[in-house]
């Protein structure tokens, strides 16, 4: 298996470019700081005093010595306050919380998509079936890094002193555990993930591989039930991670629709984007998707709209289009979030009483400080679905074309070759040093080749099809659960 090939060179080049170009050219930084997003500046104490119709109080050192601190400035809540707009620039964004994590993850996803696109073109031109798919590795890494970022955000909620966010995450985690256990017992006739055939392929390959390594009496110590219980635990963890992103998506969706009330086309696209996870769920429900399109009832006869052989390719294209739609509407959701500052001010004007000036400034500033957190909560679920689908395509041996495909079989475990080093003779010290270095490199490449050969023989395309199909479906399911609950919370519970 050729490991040190064109794909590896392009992968290393992409990693080097990402490291060198990040301070100068960053897609993540452009997405937030391209001048299309506007934040609201907090009013100064002088502006609040002028709106309240009184002079700015002078600090009294005698009162400060007696009381330990000066009395905070308060103003009426119903003052005619209008916040000043300012475009979000790079200097403002650099001080935001989790901005560096956001920039690194989004830039890595962009370069991963570029490497994947190159590998797809490379595989379409060259017969590289024996090579390692570097693009698939980048996709899997993007999924893992996205989950790590969500874990970091959830850790921030768990360290909160109030504890309400922690309870929300735990509640969604237990709810996701129950839903996952119900989903995993549904037959393949209804949810066509391919987990059963994938697990069977994995266990058979492990037994063959163990026998070839000399473990003739070795048997798999776990069963499918144990694996499914572990998978349900992972699903509960992902459900807890996606709790607040779904709740935030519901809030920004409602605000974005209201913000674009005079633009019906944008409203339609926003509703389509919000319902896109539901479409992803339906695509794996066999009686609704595959069976209906392959045998659509038309009176007493049935009409084939989409042949079953090309349905898998069509499903990949639909998911990709839905992800692109959600990415294209990012700016509307982020601006709807930033408008919460002005929305809070308008709500404050309807209340009676007085409020401290510092509280107004903190409330307005806090909205902008969490901009990158909200951006991650919006983008990371999209990246999870997108790159899980790309990994499903690459590792599951699917095709973008609509031609008929063969079901991948079980790849038998291969006998790993042992590379015997060739010792040089009759060379001086310098030549011997160069030859030793070349031998070390060749030995390292041979060991890596053996490792990847073993992995390819055990982790078959059938297993990857089942695993990544279920992962894609489950991320969409978690988003549907949390976002619909968020709609109910913001529409009904917050108004009562």
UniProtKB/TrEMBL annotation:
GO annotation, cellular component aspect: membrane
Leader sequence range is: 1-28
Q: Name one Pfam family in it.
A: Tmemb_161AB
Where mainly located? membrane
Highest taxon of source: Eukaryota
Q: Where in the cell is it found?
A: Membrane
For this entry, the protein name equals: Transmembrane protein 161A
- Give the species this sequence originates from: Parambassis ranga (Indian glassy fish)
Q: Which gene encodes it?
A: tmem161a
């Amino acid at each position: 298996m050729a490991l040190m090939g064109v794909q590896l060179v392009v992968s290393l080049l992409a990693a080097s470019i990402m490291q060198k170009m990040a301070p100068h050219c960053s897609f993540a930084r452009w997405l937030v700081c391209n001048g299309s997003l506007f934040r609201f500046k907090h009013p100064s104490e002088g502006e609040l005093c002028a709106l309240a119709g009184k002079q700015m109080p002078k600090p009294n050192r005698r009162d400060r010595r007696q009381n330990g601190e000066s009395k905070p400035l308060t103003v009426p809540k119903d003052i005619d306050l209008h916040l000043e707009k300012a475009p979000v620039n790079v200097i403002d964004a650099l001080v935001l919380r989790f901005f560096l994590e956001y920039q690194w993850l989004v830039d890595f996803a962009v370069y991963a998509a570029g490497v994947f696109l190159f590998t797809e073109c490379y595989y379409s031109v060259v017969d590289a079936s024996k090579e390692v798919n570097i693009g698939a590795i980048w996709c899997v890494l993007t999924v893992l890094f996205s989950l790590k970022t969500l874990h970091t955000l959830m850790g921030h909620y768990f360290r909160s002193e109030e504890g309400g966010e922690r309870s929300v995450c735990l509640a969604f985690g237990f709810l996701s555990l129950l839903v996952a256990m119900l989903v995993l017992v549904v037959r393949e006739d209804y949810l066509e993930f391919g987990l059963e055939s994938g697990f069977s392929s994995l266990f058979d390959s492990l037994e063959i591989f163990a026998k070839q390594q000399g473990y003739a009496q070795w048997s798999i110590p776990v069963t499918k039930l144990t694996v499914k219980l572990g998978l349900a635990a992972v699903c509960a963890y992902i459900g807890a991670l996606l709790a607040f992103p779904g709740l935030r998506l519901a809030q920004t969706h409602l605000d974005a629709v209201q913000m674009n009330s005079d633009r019906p086309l944008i409203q339609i696209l926003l509703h389509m984007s919000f319902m896109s996870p539901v479409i992803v769920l339906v695509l794996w429900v066999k009686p609704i998707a595959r069976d209906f399109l392959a045998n659509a009832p038309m009176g007493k006869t049935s009409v084939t709209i989409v042949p079953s052989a090309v349905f898998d390719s069509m499903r990949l294209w639909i998911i990709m289009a839905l992800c692109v739609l959600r990415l294209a509407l990012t700016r509307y959701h982020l601006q709807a979030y930033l408008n919460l500052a002005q929305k809070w001010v308008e709500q404050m004007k309807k209340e009676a009483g007085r409020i401290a000036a510092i509280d107004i400034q903190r409330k307005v500033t806090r909205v902008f400080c969490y901009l990158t957190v909200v951006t991650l909560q919006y983008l990371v679920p999209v990246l999870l679905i997108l790159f899980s689908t790309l990994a499903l395509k690459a590792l599951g041996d699917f095709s973008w074309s609509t031609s008929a495909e063969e079901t991948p079989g079980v790849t038998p475990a291969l006998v790993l070759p042992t590379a015997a080093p060739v010792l040089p003779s009759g060379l001086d010290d310098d030549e011997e040093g160069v030859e030793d270095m070349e031998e070390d490199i060749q030995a390292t490449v041979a060991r890596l080749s053996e490792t990847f050969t073993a992995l390819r023989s055990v982790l078959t395309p059938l297993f990857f099809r089942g695993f990544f199909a279920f992962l894609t479906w489950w991320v969409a399911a978690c988003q549907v659960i949390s976002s619909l609950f968020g709609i109910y919370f913001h529409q009904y519970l917050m108004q009562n």
